[in-house]
Design goal:
Blueprint lengths: L1 E6 L6 H13 L6 E6 L20 E3 L9 H18 L3 E5 L1 H13 L4 E6 L10 H15 L4 E4 L2 H9 L8 E3 L7 H4 L5 H7 L6 E6 L8 H14 L3 E6 L5 H7 L9 E5 L6 H6 L3 E4 L9 H7 L4 E4 L14 E4 L4 H13 L1 H16 L4 H15 L10
Parallel strand pairs: 1-2, 1-4, 2-3, 4-5, 5-6, 6-7, 8-9, 8-11, 9-10, 11-12, 12-13
Helix pairs in contact: 1-14, 2-3, 11-13
Amino acid sequence: MDITHVITRLIVGGAQENTVSSVLGLRRSPGLRVDLISGPTTGPEGTLEPVFDDHPGCLTVIPDLIRPVRPVADFRAYRKLFRRFRSTRPDIVHTHSGKAGFVGRLAAHRAGVPCVIHTIHGPSFGPFQGTSANLAFTLAERLVGRVTDHFVVVAEAMTRQYLAAGIGRPDQYTRIFSGFDLDPYLSATRDPGVGRRLGLGPDDIVVGMIARLFELKGHDDLFALAPALVRRHPRLKFLLVGDGPWRARFEARAQEPDLRGRVVFSGLVPPSRVPEMVGQMDLLIHLSRREGLPRALPQALAAGRPVVAYDCDGAGEVCLDGRTGFLVPPGNRVRLEECLENLIRDPGLRARLGGVGREWVSERFRVETMVEGLATLYRRIGPQDRNGAAH
């Protein structure tokens, strides 16, 4: 069976890491031949493209497949994808992300690809954007939803949201958690050398955050609460992992009198070094207003670190309130501060919640489990030969 995955870009991010792990893992599955098409990767978020240096022929980059809406470039990308699918005749085209999901599914349908699958890593529409944009993206998803045979979701929250918008039927959705290599997180410890390089002391209480430094990620809410927390807890520090267009803005806020020397910016960190960053943390917060199921949550839990998260999209499917961390209504800074206060002052509570989280994630988020789930889905819904066997 030949499967082609399509994604808009390969920045360092959850959806992209999921796609790369899926493609490389599926290439080891018997009977599956898998490749990946991506648009160009630019910007401060870094790139995962070098991962494919050891896999010649696996990755194809189409320069016109870009994230912003550009009708001329979008049509060129659509035409190139259509020609590619007509030439290679894959059994399944599996798309990821907004732009690749739109033009890729339309091109696959027109090219006569037998099975079209789309993974919803996060919502394309919702209250996080203006009314006009929300309507446009909803209509676009309804349009391509008609030519989609199946949807993979990383959280059941995505299924509920898309069905409520009139996209697909319940039997067209399958949840497959976004797996990753658990072992580096299960063994993550507080390395004194890493701490010294970051400016963290062995007795510091470290609140971590792994997210792009950009809008909708919740850093403003953290900075609003940080001064009061620091005044009450002199050993408290914040470790912000990631980079993005708003870095200078947040670095300026970190120079305010109460926060000077209390906020550490790690900058862009490759996926292989994220476990050592998590190892420096005592707890992790995730305040994004838009994300299917944030990988940072199961990553922190795998390391035995409790989490505090806004109850957006699929966060509540991993941040189990009172069991693996605390779930907070989005924007409720009073409740957020209360939850952080409880975890900062109570190491026993951190250990209990983190321990439950480690066990819960270990059973559900292994990358092998994700890959096997995808392979099983392909064989179930993909084209069959005359003997009923998957191509």
